[in-house]
Amino acid sequence: MAQAKKPTRAAAKGRRGQQTGRIKERIMEERTKEVRILLVSLIDTFVILVVFLFMTYSAEGDIMSVAPDLKLPASESIKNPVQSVIVAVTNKHILVEGSAVCTTEDALNDQDLVIDNLLVEMTRIRRIKEAIAEQDPTRPFKGEVTIQGDKLITFDLLTRVMYTCGRSKYGNIALAVLRKQ
To answer: For the residues of 16-36, what is the DSSP string, one character each?
Structure first.
């Protein structure tokens, strides 16, 4: 019986080259296969997302934000707030539209009922709003102000803030409270 010849190095290299070529072809076939997206699952996901957005969307929006160190008193009021100038009175500061105007200590130590820094800022804002009203008659100046007073401030301080707002021609005063549940 004759024995098979041992393959030469060149023949072995050729076979390995053919095998790696077949492997490369197989990989390319797998890569070029058509990828199908499951549209039903994708549509379901988008429908759930849209329903979630509609359920969490508020048509009224947030009219005002409360200062971080402010605790509003609770009330049974059901009237919604209107968009107006916001004066926040915390235990430490008096803020107009989020900017500190003066400290509550300075406001209480003044002998006069008018808080000078608050009067200056409210007058400046009033002049801007009146200038806008001259240019756009659909947006008249109504003199509306919302006071966010911390539930621990003194009545004297609240009275001074309200008096100062009135002196700067903001006579339509509302007090912000939390609605009791």
So the answer is: HHHHHHHHHHHHHHHHTSPP-
